[in-house]
Amino acid sequence: MEFFDKIKGDKAIWAIVALLALFSFLPVYSASSNLVYVVGNGTKTTFSFLFKHGFLLLLGFGIIYAVHKVPTHFFKGLSLITMPIVILLLVYTLAQGTTIGGANASRWIRLPLVGFTFQTSTLAAVVLMAYVARYLTKIKDRVVTFKESILPLWLPVFVILVLILPANFSTAAIIFFMVMVLCFLGGYPVKYLLGIVGSGLLFLTLFILTAKAAPDLFPNRVTTWESRITSFMNGEDGESDYQIEKAKIAIATGGVIGKGAGKSIQKNFLPQSSSDFIFAIIVEEYGLVGGLILVFFYLLLLFRIVVVANGNQTIFGKLLVIGVGLPIVFQAFINMAVAVELFPVTGQTLPLISSGGTSTWMTCLAIGIILSASNKEVSKEPSSVDIDDTNPLEVLSGQL
């Protein structure tokens, strides 16, 4: 009981996250048979994939616990400190020039010693949301011009998006959309936001034209985007269309109550059955009922995120919760929409459910921040006169 007494913050969010994580073991264990016998030719066991998934979640909950103890206003200074680190990591990731199927796939770096791969764009998304929330708090209740916001706000946003875009269009698009939403909610002038959206579309057009004119710069990246969108719009055959067809078969054969745990057939044919298309396997095994229950939990998480944001006493806390919380639910619904062919294939995983990938840790980091903001004992922001001069993070967040 002493451990539970140390857990602070919104208890409903703790419960939702714990239930999603516990449930994830069932579909991950079932779908991992594809990785063992089809992809890996039996070189590993399903238990090894389950153990890895459990290890990632265990460390993830460690991150949640540690982060939710951090006072919310500390994330102002932390976002400034980690921003240049994140940019350097993104540059290093992009410079690797990794390709899969001839297309740029420089999304991960390998962590030394442990051997895990780390997707740097997921860390960049969390840090950028905190950074934007800090800036919007700083300009709250005063008139701001576009010129004065270029360097402190839009330059970091632009640099991060440019470094992510070549290898991961969907993540760059989600981050850009969330920045726009956060700026709108933070009171940034709408006329400037419209200009930023127009500039973004213009830059994307120039990027596509440049990639087509000089294909060696970004091998097959734009071609991959075009093929996925064309396949989605016209129903043409292709690799992504094959995945969608198998996902739809899994969903259709699941019926109302499903085939039962571990009894999926399409997991043996669906290439990304334990990650990108795990929702299809869940519906096949647990039916429409299981799928709707999962949707309900993500909607409940969204509701609690809004409640926490509304209940926080500081502008920074409100914007921070929205900035790091909404992308979790947004990504979940994009993943499920892809499985039922409402969206083209994006490569987005199902948060807290999909196996593999240290993106789980970044989701847990975001949840820890939300719980910190919901913890009234640590979420109160000190006034400028109460800043502790001995704490560099408080000095940094108070002065900048």
What does this structure look like?
The chain has one domain (2-399). It contains 14 helices and 4 strands. The protein has helices at residues 2-6, 11-39, 46-67, 74-95, 120-138, 146-164, 169-185, 190-213, 221-234, 239-254, 278-311, 315-339, 359-374, 392-399; strands spanning 99-100, 103-104, 108-110, 117-119. It has a two-stranded antiparallel sheet. β3 and β4 (117-119) form a beta hairpin. α2 (11-39) runs antiparallel to α3 (46-67), α11 packs antiparallel against α12 (315-339) and α12 packs antiparallel against α13. It starts with a helix and ends with a helix.
In short:
By secondary structure, this protein is mainly α. The protein has 14 helices and four strands. The chain has a two-stranded antiparallel sheet. Strands 3-4 form a two-stranded antiparallel ribbon.
Principal-axes geometry comes out as: globular
Number of domains: 1
| Count of individual beta strands | 4
Give a short account of the largest sheet: 2 strands, antiparallel
Percent of residues in beta strands:
under 5%
Determine the fraction of residues in helical runs and give it as a percent range. 55-70%
Keywords for this structure?
two-stranded antiparallel sheet; two-stranded antiparallel ribbon; mainly alpha; 400 residues
